[in-house]
Amino acid sequence: EKGGYKHFMQKEIFEQPRAITDTVRGHIDLDRDKLVFEEFPLTKKAFKKIEKIWIVACGTSYHASLVGKYMIEKMALVPVEVDLASEFRYREPLINQKMLLVVISQSGETADTLAALREGKKRGAKTLGICNVLGSTLPRECDYVIYTHAGPEIGVASTKAFTTQLAILYLLSLYFAKLNGKLTEIRTFLEDMLRLPHQIEIILKGAEVVEKLAPQYGNAHNFLYLGRGIYYPIAMEGALKLKEISYIHAEAYAAGEMKHGPIALIDENMPVVALVPKGETYPKMLSNIEEVICRQGKLIALTEKNCKEIGEKANEVIYIPSSNPFLKTILFTIPLQLFAYYMAVFKGTDVDQPRNLAKSVTVE
Ligand code: M6R
């Protein structure tokens, strides 16, 4: 049932090209340069009435929500607020009938997420679920549902559910941008999406580059993950993966915050994983990296070809294929999943069933 793989998590990481293809297929009509969201029909007029979008979730789905905020705000220019479900439900959120509540859950059974959904409904918001499990509770209770077609996810660590959530959020952002009159040319964005599964395959084919890091770094007790902008939640997701299956403490920081505290932690025993895509934040990340290096921190950098400076500075470099900044978040995620996986295998932990964790958290 593991199809020749050692663990479900490994199988699920390697299934991502197919999972993404299956998830986006029904939504892209390239012949007509159109996005199709039959399960969430919205007119321009109805969309204009939405004052604010909320996204609520837990764990990995929460990290997808944070990426979704960057995508929607940047492309569609609508304000988005993101909350952890367990916080939202107890903080009397100022949500009302003029707002849309998007609830994200792989399982559709997470107790806090369901409670947040009910709270939002009670306050009159329209609700949209993004879910991977057909017939689970979440889709039954939402006004609209969009499914990720990742297929069953067995490993407790969420992998393909996350990247398919990002794929849906990307298409949804384009859909909102179009409805809001903020996007004239959509074709390149759709073509980028359709190229993505193959780009993931390229990263997966080079998995041994990541695998060989495990014996070198497997004895570290703490890791710092750094990213900026839309890559900050990707750093958070990378840190969560490492914690949950290898039991190594890892913390993610928005790189600009380093100087406000965490820089005190850096020495030769604290490896740093830095996400350094090309683009606006590149020079800033470079200077953060300098700060790590001059404190003898070991640096694992994820970057793109032609970013020569990084190659010269970092101890390890992992190259990611290029795409638009939104979709690159998916590509940068893959090596982080692989890294957590190989570190856990190196440490001999129970990869698919890490201690103290359940696949879906149905208690509050
Ligand atoms: O099924 P859900 O997406 O609602 O689950 C939310 C979290 O419990 C889940 O993402 C958890 O954080 C994973 N173990 C992370 O890998």
Automatic annotation (TrEMBL):
It comes from the Bacteria. Keywords: Aminotransferase, Cytoplasm, Glutamine amidotransferase, Repeat, Transferase. It catalyses: D-fructose 6-phosphate + L-glutamine = D-glucosamine 6-phosphate + L-glutamate. The active site is at K359. GO terms for molecular function: carbohydrate derivative binding; glutamine-fructose-6-phosphate transaminase (isomerizing) activity. GO terms for cellular component: cytosol. It is found in: Cytoplasm. Residues 43-182, 213-354 form the SIS domain. Its EC number is 2.6.1.16. One of its GO terms (biological process) is carbohydrate metabolic process. Homodimer. Catalyzes the first step in hexosamine metabolism, converting fructose-6P into glucosamine-6P using glutamine as a nitrogen source. This is Glutamine--fructose-6-phosphate aminotransferase [isomerizing].
